[in-house]
Write a structure and sequence with these properties.
22% strand; five-stranded parallel beta sheet; single chain; 15 helices; 2 domains; alpha/beta; Rossmann fold
Length: 417
């Protein structure tokens, strides 16, 4: 089963020959090796690069164990570079090499060496890996499959495929499985024995019960505003555990550093400023989120909101939680202050989009409720409501676009309405 991953592949292609070390990051099992060793390799071959100028080393392969020695790897690569034409150096699971940073930095001043690496141990889970390469590292972040990619290799109606995607997520190996129980067991084992273990090993966490409880708490509340203080209170009242807000903040940062969750910060739309707390957290892969909760909490509205967030991030948008403070006159000349929320404020360069996620708009009352915050925004940027029902795309009299989630997810240009 070959899955086209054109968004990520194109992000590698545009960096070709830029004089930097291309570091492909992302959560485990999201397809980094496949992207580099299959899709990018095939691209090079199709564009006239012969095998002699593509140096591929899978350092996880026991047959290449000798090349895990940094000097042996250097000598091997150097021996393959016999002329002044460009060489593409593709190293998979580079963390197996001791002092791999020195090995990679050794090629920064060689003009015909173009270096691409992946890694997936605890060290490469950190987003600060780029600092290891003296400011000459270029990160290419890989995500699990988008719904469009997922659908390209599956059969069924859009409705059934979306439910499968929202339930089991977009990890490529899971998408290739046909048995539900196999998917469930794989996701549970992956979460416990890979992701949690990586975080514990990297940060030497001895008591991991609280960390796992925190993950479950965040998983139960995707799309809800929270902060370390609120979570601290939840641990005290519900879990009967004393976990300080400072420790909670550290754990949340670790989970983000491991690409398991992402944080969306509140933004005051009228005041044009960020509000540090509370924030929302979303899971990078919904299958892992659901596995963490034993597939007990699979409400469509929450999962759809998380999927929309992931798709927006995949398209390169920064995504904040919008807030609009409004005041209205009440009795005795007093003014009442209230806050309206916009699910997503999305920015990309000079572009901006305001997006609401709603399961359906069955009545005028519900429609007014969902559109209310968008109507309070006094600028000309696109305002969109994404619904979970298969409604044709249309615009309201106020210029707000109503779009179904299938059209949004299946068309990477869907926001440009």
């Amino acid at each position: 089963m070959e899955i086209k991953r054109d968004i990520h592949l194109n992000r590698i292609i545009v960096r070709k020959g830029n004089g930097m070390i291309k570091v492909i990051t992302g959560m485990r099992r999201c397809g980094k090796s496949y992207l580099l060793f299959t899709l990018f390799y095939n691209y090079l071959k199709e564009h006239g690069i012969d095998d002699a100028h593509i140096i591929k080393v899978d350092l996880e392969d026991r047959r290449n164990a000798a090349l895990r020695n940094p000097d042996a790897l250097l000598q091997y690569i150097d021996s393959r570079m016999t002329d002044s034409l460009p060489y593409f150096i593709l190293l998979d699971e580079v963390q197996f090499v001791r002092e791999f940073e020195d090995v990679l930095n050794s090629y920064l001043k060689i003009p015909n060496a173009d270096v691409y690496v992946t890694g997936s141990n605890a060290k490469f889970l950190s987003k600060d890996v780029i600092t290891e390469f003296r400011g000459r590292g270029d990160e290419i972040h890989i995500t699990p499959l988008s719904f469009q990619e997922f659908s390209s290799v599956k059969e069924g109606s859009q409705e059934s495929l979306l439910m499968e995607y929202l339930t089991y997520g977009g990890l490529p190996q899971v998408a290739a499985m046909t048995d539900s129980q196999q998917k469930i067991e794989y996701l549970k084992n992956l979460f416990t024995h890979t992701y949690i273990r990586d975080i514990k090993e990297r940060y030497d966490i001895q008591k991991d019960d609280d960390l796992e409880e925190l993950i479950s708490l965040i998983a139960s509340n995707i799309g809800s505003l929270t902060n370390p203080t609120k979570l601290e209170n939840s641990f005290k009242s519900v879990k009967r555990s004393v976990l300080s807000k400072d420790t909670i903040k550290i754990y949340l940062d670790l989970l983000q550093d491991a690409f398991l969750i992402e944080k969306s910060t509140r933004y005051d739309i009228k005041g044009k400023k960020y509000i540090d707390t509370p924030s929302k957290y979303y899971f990078t892969d919904l299958g892992l989120r659901n596995a963490r909760l034993n597939f007990r909490q699979t409400e469509f509205t929450h999962l759809m909101e998380n999927a929309i967030y992931n798709e927006l991030r995949l398209r390169g948008l920064s995504v904040d939680v919008g807030q609009i403070v409004i005041q209205k006159s009440v009795e005795d000349g007093k003014r009442q202050r209230s806050t309206l929320e916009v699910d997503f404020v999305c920015n990309q360069g000079y572009k901006r989009y305001y997006i609401q996620s709603a399961y359906a708009l069955p009545t005028e009352e519900k429609k007014e409720q969902e559109l209310n915050s968008l109507l309070k925004i006094n600028d000309s940027f696109p305002k969109i409501v994404i619904v979970g029902t298969p409604t044709p795309t249309y615009q309201t009299e106020e210029g707000i676009t109503i779009m179904n989630v299938y059209d949004f997810l299946m068309n990477t240009n869907s926001l440009n309405v």
